[in-house]
Design brief:
The structure holds two protein chains of two kinds. Helices cover about 30% and strands about 15% of the residues of chain A. Chain A is α/β, with parallel strands linked by helices. Chain A is built from eleven helices and eight strands. In chain A, strand 1, helix 2 and strand 2 form a beta-alpha-beta unit. Chain A has one domain: Rossmann fold, CATH 3.40.50.970. Chain A has an eight-stranded mixed beta sheet, with helices on both faces. Chain B folds into three domains: about 240 residues, Thiamin diphosphate (ThDP)-binding fold, Pyr/PP domains (Rossmann fold), CATH 3.40.50.970; about 130 residues, Rossmann fold (3-Layer(aba) Sandwich), CATH 3.40.50; about 40 residues, no CATH class. Chain B is built from 15 helices and 16 strands. A seven-stranded mixed beta sheet of chain B has the order 3-2-4-5-7-6-13, with helices on both faces. Classes of the chains: A alpha/beta, B alpha/beta. At the A-B interface, strand 1, strand 2, helix 3 and helix 5 of A face strand 3, helix 3, helix 5 and strand 9 of B. Strand 2 of chain A pairs parallel with strand 9 of chain B, so a sheet runs across the interface.
């Protein structure tokens, strides 16, 4: 029998594939006993990054809590596609109240569990970037500053996708949305706006803040499991590409999420009590063009003539993230 | 135990006797003393186990109550005025989800102009949000209604607002009989939720419902709320048996059996109205009063039965629908729709203006002597001169400035030229 050639880097990057890992190091998703918390049959679009992110995050959280988990969900795609009456994809106790109140609802759930002596049951709040960064921000900040025992997960697809791709405060500069169209002298979303929810979460000095993408499953699951090791307010911000809103191939959701990280546009890090404790470093920085050109929301930057000035401004943002978070690995010798 | 006590403190103690497990609190006058007192009771351990959440807004307060109630905890909050409006979205959500939250509304006006004093604009603005609405006449009744409200809410799995007049009741110190813990425990069984978030039996609460069943879900909300029309008198009866005094119910008539004129009202103004009824009765006027204790669900049959013998009905209300007129008046007309009984609407007490016996005597005289027309909104004690001056100013000068400042200046409350500008 001839020796089979080992393919170490199965996913085109430096991530090690599951099959090469010891059984106990494999992802929750790769295990037969995964809980399928967000089970099949839901109505998410093909290639939906949010469905992927929620599935990873919740199965990891279920594993970390031995299935003792309750979720409060904000209005948005995740809520709509998962619960078309009379069906539900949720295999955990799940409550949807309103668009802007998921963190406060989660606070109430945690308080009820505490008063009943059931702190073995953990609480997760979740929503999209609009529900989290915009309309739900006051409730989120309140939950953080009170240090309520809630893990809040934001699935960031960088716009209001459920209502038809309108700009949110997580929409990147230059991106086309339904109300930042590529018309006029400054096409797409304006520069100098928007906010970083993870950094604001850190400013509350809550026990744990992390960012992740759907490109690195091990990392995402680790961060959810790590978050569950803490009590108090925790925040995990997951970048989840949206093929519909971003104008990307549905087969490229994971690849685009990886490019977001490898360009430096989306820094992946962990922070404890307001201090960054770990960053996911980039071996080779990818130019932002590679990320941008794969998405029709940036197509107006690649016309004739191309908007090299805008692309350079986006590159500068990526470079700043790399400096700020120390994202670039020292060149391997 | 009977004691001289502030209304807010009495209500806080009554709520504590109901053993709420989660209280969410956000300050707004004139409700704040209630949640302050509850904070003390939780901190000293007198109320335990109980989680007291100091949330970031009234929207957060109701949202936390929603999460807690859905997790099976008896949940309470209190608010007023702008705070009630700020939680409006969550109010509809709580009732739509059928969560038995109890909330005190310390009734207060709604701005602009901002005004902290009592009227019913806040609660009336939310009369159709799916919550049961009870209105207390006195602090004793406010205490009693809270104890009944938890039982009613949890039996029907619907939220209940207990409305009490801000300042007039919340800040009034008067004798109140507070029950013992044993009495309340006997009357109010522990909360057994109809639906609960439980990992051992996971359910999805708050799913999306499209046109195929939305109307049916909403119909059930209505049908369920209407059950309170039967349940509330039962609970009120059980309460009077257990506590030895009568409180609550749907409506309460005062000397109206043979009355030709009946004054209908909600809340603390009934005390003043009853005094005026006594005075007029002494002069031979056949007048009575009808207090509406439960405004939602609307006790149409009881109101009809109580008023059908009258020759005329005067509805005195502390709120009105701008562009239409009386709110309670419209509801009373519905109850009397096929009866030839004229209904007079009088708006009174807006923004805390006192409703005096003298004003009520004038109102009744105006009705009896046909100086007022039925079905036309009348404003009690309106300063017509002040209104006319402002209307003239508006017609003379397009940029005549904000009404509120102009009118305050007219009555000498604001310095004539506050910002150094010309006096208009």
């Amino acid at each position: 029998m001839s020796a089979e050639k080992l393919k170490l880097y199965q996913v085109g990057t430096f991530a090690v594939g599951n099959r090469l890992l010891d059984a106990d190091q494999r992802t929750v998703q790769a295990r037969t006993e995964r809980s399928n918390t967000l089970t099949s049959g839901h109505r998410a679009c093909r290639g939906c990054g949010e469905a992927l992110g929620a599935r990873y995050a919740l199965d990891a959280a279920m594993r970390a809590t031995q299935g003792k988990l309750v979720a409060a969900n904000a209005t948005g795609c995740l809520e709509v596609f998962s619960t078309p009456y009379p069906e539900s994809s949720w295999q955990l106790p799940w409550l949807h109240s309103l668009f802007g109140n998921a963190p406060a609802v989660a606070t109430g759930i945690a308080a009820a569990l505490k008063v009943k002596g059931r702190t073995d049951i953990r609480v997760i709040g979740q929503g999209g970037d609009g529900g989290t960064l915009d309309i739900g921000f006051a409730c989120l900040s309140g939950m953080f500053e009170r240090n309520d025992d809630v893990l809040y997960v934001c699935y960031d697809n960088e716009a209001y996708m459920n209502t038809g791709v309108q700009r949110s405060s997580a929409t990147p500069p230059a991106a086309r949305t339904a109300n930042t169209k590529p018309v006029g002298d400054e096409p797409g979303n304006v520069f100098g706006q928007g906010k970083s929810a993870p950094l604001i979460a850190m400013a509350h000095e809550i026990p744990y803040v992390a960012t992740a993408t759907v490109a690195d499953l091990h990392d995402l699951e680790h961060k959810i499991e790590r978050a569950m090791e803490f009590r108090g307010a925790r925040y995990v911000h997951i970048l989840v590409p949206c093929p519909l809103g971003w104008g990307s191939e549905s087969s490229e959701t994971v690849g685009i999420a990886r490019l977001a990280q490898e360009t430096g546009l989306f820094p992946v890090f962990e922070a404890e009590a307001g201090e960054v404790v770990a960053v996911s470093q980039i071996r080779r920085q990818v130019p932002v063009e590679e990320y941008l050109v794969a998405q029709r929301r940036f197509a107006h930057l690649f016309g004739d003539p191309p908007r090299t000035d805008v692309i350079a401004d986006l590159q500068a943002r990526a470079d700043r993230n790399i400096r700020r978070f120390g994202l670039l690995q020292e060149e391997a010798v | 135990m009977r004691s001289q006590i502030e209304g807010s403190i009495a209500v806080a103690k009554a709520v504590a006797l109901c053993r709420p497990e989660v209280i969410s609190a956000y300050p707004i006058s004139p409700q704040t003393h209630i949640v302050e007192a509850l904070s003390d009771l939780v901190r000293t351990g007198e109320l335990a186990p109980c989680e007291y959440l100091m949330v970031e807004s009234e929207f957060g307060a109701m949202s936390a109550a929603i999460g807690a109630s859905a997790t099976g905890a008896r949940s309470y909050t209190a608010t007023a005025s702008q705070g009630l409006l700020y939680m409006a979205e969550a109010l509809y959500n709580a009732s739509g989800l059928g969560l038995p939250i109890v909330m005190t509304v310390a009734n207060r006006a709604i701005g602009a102009p901002i005004n902290i004093w009592n009227d019913h604009s806040d609660a009336m603005s939310q009369r159709d949000c799916g919550w049961i609405q009870l209105y207390a006449e006195s602090n004793q009744e406010a205490v009693d209604l809270h104890i009944q409200a938890f039982r009613l809410a949890e039996e029907l799995s619907l939220p209940v607002m207990v409305c009490m007049d801000g300042f007039v009741l919340t800040h009034a110190i008067e004798a109140v009989e507070l029950p013992t813990q044993e009495q309340v425990d006997t009357f109010l069984p522990p909360f057994h939720p109809r639906q609960v978030l439980d990992p051992d039996d996971p359910v999805t609460i708050g799913a999306m419902v499209g046109p195929e069943a939305f109307a049916e879900v909403k119909y059930l909300m209505h049908a369920k709320q209407m059950q309170a029309l039967d349940l509330l008198p039962e609970i009120s009866g059980a309460f009077s048996q257990a506590f030895g005094r009568s409180s609550g119910g749907l409506v309460r008539a005062y000397r109206s059996a043979d009355a030709e004129t009946v004054v209908v009202a909600l809340g603390s103004v009934l005390g003043t109205i009853e005094e005026v009824v006594d005075e007029l009765r002494a002069d031979g006027v056949r007048i009575g009063a009808l207090g509406v204790r439960c405004f939602r669900p609307y006790p149409l049959e009881e109101i009809r039965a109580a008023l059908q013998g009258a020759k005329r009905v005067v509805v005195l209300e502390k709120a009105f629908a701008v562009g239409l007129g009386g709110i309670v008046g419209q509801n009373v007309r519905l109850a009397l729709s096929d009866l030839p009984i004229p209904v007079y609407d009088a708006v009174a007490g807006l923004g805390g203006r006192p409703i005096t016996r003298r004003s009520l005597h004038t109102l009744v005289a105006d009705v009896l002597e046909e100086r007022l027309e039925p079905n036309r909104l009348a404003f009690l004690d309106l300063n017509w001169e002040l209104v006319e001056r402002e209307l003239q100013r508006v017609s003379a000068d397009r940029r005549s400035g904000p009404h509120a400042e102009n009118m305050l200046r007219d009555i000498g409350t604001v310095a004539a030229s506050a910002h150094g500008g010309p006096t208009r």
